[in-house]
Design a protein that fits this description.
single chain; 527 residues; five-stranded parallel beta sheet; five-stranded antiparallel beta sheet; 14 helices
Length: 527
């Protein structure tokens, strides 16, 4: 079957070229103008938001966030007791590989692609943590594993504000949560991981299961106090969660030392008394790289009061590790005004906080992007680098490489848009893309392949360097991709003129039009 791809490419390339520079030397140097050191983050959830309902909406959303100066996103990957990515851990434990709403997709992979091509870091957010359900009596998790339930003094399932809880003191439960986090770290090129007010956390009404009581008796030589607010009892249980956090951090850093270990707990010390989150000790022990206390207050005076208290709690300079969480909207009940948002950000800077994270994405887009556009015109007018990263090169924007007249060998014809080459019929041919980088780095390489191209004769690419030769045949069903971008592989590229990617067709059994289109390259930060 013959098919023409050139009629579609002018439209997709116009959009691509508007967003990316086109070059064959794709390593990017930090911009002199990007001297601001600020963390500018946004939580992305699937509640009261539709950004995750399609790949196209994710792409548009990441483009917009980049345009207003956002440099990091925290997408939900675990809530309602299910994952938004295909999880072997969930399938092993419960026979549910992914939230059924996202069957056939990998939402995390889609976000990583669209965010990283924009130079935005991605830190997956394990929203539910040690909670298992919301007003469902434990849901399918406790239906299958009732022994995992957190119990109160009356032996009932712990429930607070509608959320039902797993026993965060149980080693089996801790291993389950750790396995989810480490699965993401191993499987995806993420920039970090994040827990929140439910990880590690547990309502202070919990801890009355037989195993936890026995553990307290063995360590303290007495019965647990009758009062759940007893300071020794609170601290003892909080220390168990702190130890869990320390072990999880150790495992994450062993997998990749550069990953951001981030937490977004309830404010201290309310979080300690209510959810056993000893944030102050976490920071003293150096367990957290970036802390985002949920300073969710609607009134300006209340926000400032909480921020003042937060700044006073930590011995570490707050501009090094603490970036407050700010409330922008809740459903239809609340949307912060643009003027108040601007004043609160100014107060953050006055108090020494070099950044913030907004809860949540939809607030920036409401009323015709009023809040987001205000950020770009005001406090986010200049681009920023995340303070503790070593320059803009950590997660630079992806770069497009267009085919040039030096690439073709054979009967290639430049297409009507002037930016692609086509090889018709059964002609043999090679098309070479030279690759070079200022410094040696590993890069993810993607090729733009139109869906009109015949699937009977998939493109064959070969990466060639002094260190490696690797051939890739594109499988459009199995290869992770976004829209028309298909993943070829991850290779080390540096200042070596012999590096190249070759698209070729050989032999009489091949038919149909072959197109040499653009490549896209992203820095690979997986270990």
């Amino acid at each position: 079957m013959k098919c023409s791809v050139t009629r579609l490419l002018p439209f997709v390339l116009a959009a691509i070229l508007a967003a990316f520079p086109a070059t064959s030397a794709f390593a990017q140097k930090p911009s002199k103008a990007a001297a601001v050191k600020e963390l500018r983050g946004v939580w992305i959830t699937n509640v009261d938001s539709d950004i995750l309902t399609s790949r196209e909406k994710i792409a548009e959303g990441m483009d917009y966030l980049r345009s207003i100066g956002i440099n990091i996103v925290y997408p939900v990957v675990y809530n309602r007791g299910m994952t938004l990515y295909p999880s072997a851990v969930m399938e092993r434990e419960f026979g549910i590989k992914i939230d059924p709403r996202y069957e056939g997709r990998d939402v995390l992979r889609e976000i990583l692609f669209e965010a990283h091509r924009n130079g935005i870091e991605v830190v997956p957010w394990f929203e539910y943590g040690f909670a298992c359900s919301y007003n469902q009596g434990g849901g399918f998790i406790l239906e299958q594993k009732p022994e995992w339930a957190a119990l109160d003094q009356d032996g009932r399932l712990v429930k607070k504000n509608g959320f039902e809880w797993l026993n965060a003191f149980d080693p089996a439960v801790q291993n389950y949560i750790s396995d989810l986090v480490l699965e993401v770290v191993a499987k995806y090129d993420v920039d970090g991981v994040q827990g929140d007010d439910r990880m590690p956390a547990l309502p202070s009404t919990a801890g009355y299961d037989a195993a936890t009581i026995a553990r307290f008796r063995a360590e303290k030589k007495k019965e647990p106090p009758a009062s759940i607010d007893d300071l020794e009892w609170i601290q003892w249980r909080a220390d168990i969660l702190t130890n869990f956090l320390a072990e999880l951090r150790k495992k994450v850093k062993a997998a990749n030392p550069q990953l951001m270990f981030s937490m977004a707990p309830s404010p201290y010390d309310w979080g300690l008394k209510e959810y056993l989150q000893d944030t102050k000790k976490w920071m003293e022990l150096g367990l957290v790289d970036a802390l985002h206390p949920q300073c969710y207050r609607r009134a300006e005076k209340d926000y400032r009061s909480l921020l003042d208290a937060t700044a006073a709690q930590f011995s570490t300079p707050v501009n090094a590790k603490v970036f407050p969480g700010m409330l922008t909207n809740i459903g239809k009940d609340y949307l912060i005004s643009a003027d108040l948002l601007k004043r609160e950000i100014a107060y953050n800077r006055k108090m020494g906080f070099a950044g913030e994270v907004f809860f949540f994405y939809e607030g920036l887009r409401k009323n015709g992007n009023a809040l987001g556009d205000k950020l770009r015109r005001g406090p986010y007018k200049r681009d920023a680098e995340i303070p503790f990263r070593k320059g803009a090169a950590w997660r630079p924007r992806a770069v497009i490489i267009l085919p040039t007249d030096q690439g073709p060998e054979g009967a290639w014809q430049r297409s009507g848009d002037g930016q692609t080459f086509a090889l018709a019929g059964k002609s043999d041919g090679r098309f070479t893309y030279p690759l070079s980088s200022v410094t040696w780095e590993r890069y993810h390489i993607y090729a733009k392949i139109s869906r009109d191209m015949s699937e009977d004769f998939p493109p064959l690419y070969t990466f060639v360097s002094k260190m490696a030769v690797a051939a890739v045949t594109v499988n459009r069903d199995a290869t992770p991709h976004s829209v028309d971008w298909y993943y070829l592989g991850s290779w080390v590229i540096g200042p070596d003129s012999d590096q190249k990617l070759i698209l070729r067709r050989d032999g009489d059994n091949m038919d149909g039009e072959l197109v040499a289109g653009p490549l896209m390259l992203m820095v690979d930060r997986s270990k």
